[in-house]
Amino acid sequence: MMPSYNFVYDFAMANLQQVKVKGKNFVARCPLCGDSAKNVRKKRFNLKFENEKSIFYHCFNCNASGSFISLYARMKGITDKQAYREISKKKIDNIKKNWEKPNQIVESVQKNGFFNEYKKDWIGINDKPKGVVQTEFQKRLLSFLYKRRLPKSYPFYIATGGFYKNRIIVPVFDGDKNIIYFQGRSLDNNADQKYLNPTLTSKKMIIMNEHSFDTEKYIVITEGIFDACLVGNQGTCCFGSSIDDDFLAQIKTKTKKGIIIALDNDKTGKSSIKKIIKKSRYAAFLRYFKMPFDDIKDINELVIKKNIGIVYDFILKNSLSCFEYKVKEKL
């Protein structure tokens, strides 16, 4: 069975960059050579659909050309024969299904590796890419980590397909390395939804780095998941709407030293800390990170702009007792 126009259309939209549709022709940046390096807007790749038996591509930059089967094979890193079989088996309904938002997940699935199956659509920094598509996505992941100064020691991924496609995936693991939760961060800073997460009946049970904590050190609770990654094994964040006493009670059992609240240095972050100090029964026993720079919003920006090395030590050095924080902020 040869691919239909709908199949080719879905493939082009999912795998080509800067696609323009002209009738049944697709013009885009070449996925094989990367196209013009001097002009990022040039599109020299053409994919022409005449009928189901006549679908060809040609790049006017690298001169690559061939059938849709051969293009599919090169993009996926498989043989032409394997590509033909794969295309023959795929149905348009199955492709669309992969783009639907996952159904709401009940609380119990967190502990049985339910989210492990999502990895079929992800590639990590240490995975060997198969084909041009995965190679391109892996480059985007590495570029993002480099720009944000995020540690490569944490197992970040990028989604190459499915509902979370083109998002940086930050997984949370249980003690057996099963994925119990994750966040998907859009590479587009102007996206309507910068973060997309699986829907759970309760997120208070999720503690990032729970099985990596050193009980002889402080646990640092940040506002964002990337900030927690920068703190290291002692970093965690709240996936619920706020840091409440139920969450603090769980964290308290994981450390003999104490807890540091390190939220964003903005109106929302300061308001959240004020709320904790006024309403939490643990307020007096917590420490609070006071950002020493007025122009820095969060820990990630701190690392990028101030070249901070060991983030945990910096936060500890700039943390205050409840009384000291209230005096500084005049609460």
Would you kindly provide a written description of the structure presented here, covering whatever features stand out?
By secondary structure, this protein is an alpha+beta fold. It folds into three domains: 5-97, DNA Primase, Chain A (Alpha-Beta Complex), CATH 3.90.580; 107-196, no CATH class; 219-329, Dna Topoisomerase Vi A Subunit, Chain: A, domain 2. It is built from eleven helices and 15 strands. Helix 6 links the parallel strand 11 (219-222) and strand 12 (235-237). Helix 2 (68-76) crosses helix 5.
Task: Describe, in short, the structure shown.
The chain has 331 residues and is an alpha+beta fold.
Strand order of the largest sheet: 1-2-3-4-5
CATH C-level class of the largest domain is Alpha Beta
Binned strand content: 15-25%
Portion of residues within helices: 25-40%
Can you count the beta strands?
A: 15
Which word captures the global form?
elongated
Mean pLDDT: 87
- Give the low-pLDDT segments: 91-99, 104-109
In total, the number of domains comes to 3
| N→C terminal distance | 71 Å
Number of helices: 11
Topology:
Blueprint (H helix, E strand, L loop, with lengths): L4 H11 L1 E6 L2 E5 L15 E7 L2 E6 L5 E3 H9 L3 H10 L2 H6 L24 E3 L6 H18 L8 E3 L7 E7 L5 E8 L8 E2 L22 E4 L2 H7 L3 E3 L7 H8 L6 E4 L4 H13 L7 E3 L9 H8 L4 H7 L1 E3 H8 L2
Parallel strand pairs: 11-12, 11-13, 13-14
Antiparallel strand pairs: 1-2, 2-3, 3-4, 4-5, 6-7, 7-8, 8-9, 9-10, 14-15
Helix pairs in contact: 2-3, 2-5
